[in-house]
Design goal:
Blueprint (H helix, E strand, L loop, with lengths): L2 H11 L2 E2 L2 E2 H4 L6 H14 L3 E5 L5 H9 L5 E6 L2 H14 L4 E5 L2 H11 L4 E6 L5 H14 E10 L4 H13 L2 E3 L32 E6 L14
Parallel strand pairs: 3-4, 3-6, 4-5, 6-7
Antiparallel strand pairs: 1-2, 7-9, 8-9
Helix pairs in contact: 1-4, 3-4, 6-7, 7-8
């Protein structure tokens, strides 16, 4: 068993994790089932460049690293200074050399990256600001920085703001919703649910922890394009 795997097991079984009490760690952090799902998903697509928006207590970061047995770059953007300190401690303890931790707002980081270093990402994992306007700004920049066939993984699909933002993307940008075939979560393809506002409420009745968007082509919209969402 690797040190990373044993650290994950410890996080879910102990009363605290790097001095963070268990009751504070969960449900803020992803569950073991969610972690296993992310592991399976990333193991299939083998991304080279991963950007994680919102590191939190570092549990999702550990799951992502636990499945990446190939050369890659993993950037974690976290606006909370205390979370950054925790992530830095975990990174140092486990010698996770592929991870770069950035203390910045997600919007400022993405805008700066687009202006100065437009290296395309293969995967965005978003578990940061869930305010609709903040998330829309994140998605605007993620779209510009994501490679074709790349993925945007959004956590907490129970949140109406996330479902609404995803509705915009599906109706206005070249993305498709990836069916979740993992038995641990849901087998439903949700794309048709996002066509009309009234149908959005149906998503909440499904056991859907994540919404996963796949970029299918470049953005070729005319300047005046708009589809209601």
């Amino acid at each position: 068993m690797s040190k990373l795997t044993s650290t994950l097991e410890y996080a879910y079984s102990s009363s605290s994790f790097f001095d963070i009490p268990r009751e504070k760690l969960f449900p803020t952090s992803i569950t073991q089932i969610q972690g296993l799902f992310i592991t399976e998903l990333l193991s299939k697509c083998r991304p080279q460049n991963i950007i994680e928006l919102g590191g939190g207590f570092g549990i999702s970061c550990l799951w992502i690293e636990n499945c990446c047995h190939w050369p890659h770059h993993h950037t974690v953007v976290e606006s909370d200074r205390k979370s950054c300190q925790l992530l830095s401690t975990v990174k140092k303890e486990l010698n996770l050399k592929s991870i770069k931790i950035v203390h910045d707002s997600t919007q400022h980081y993405l805008a700066t990256k687009l202006a100065s270093e437009p290296t395309l990402a293969d995967v965005f994992f978003i578990d940061a600001c869930e305010l609709f306007d903040g998330l829309m700004v994140d998605l605007h920049f993620c779209n510009k920085l994501l490679a074709i066939n790349g993925l945007i993984i959004l956590r907490n699909s129970w949140n109406p703001s996330i479902r609404k933002a995803v509705s915009f993307v599906l109706e206005n940008l070249p993305y498709e919703l990836v069916p979740q075939t993992n038995d641990l979560l849901t087998k439903h393809s949700l794309k048709s649910i996002f066509i009309r506002d009234a149908a959005l409420k149906r998503v909440g009745s499904l056991s859907c922890d994540f919404l996963i968007l796949k970029k299918t082509s470049a953005d070729l919209r005319p300047w005046n394009h708009f589809s209601a969402f």
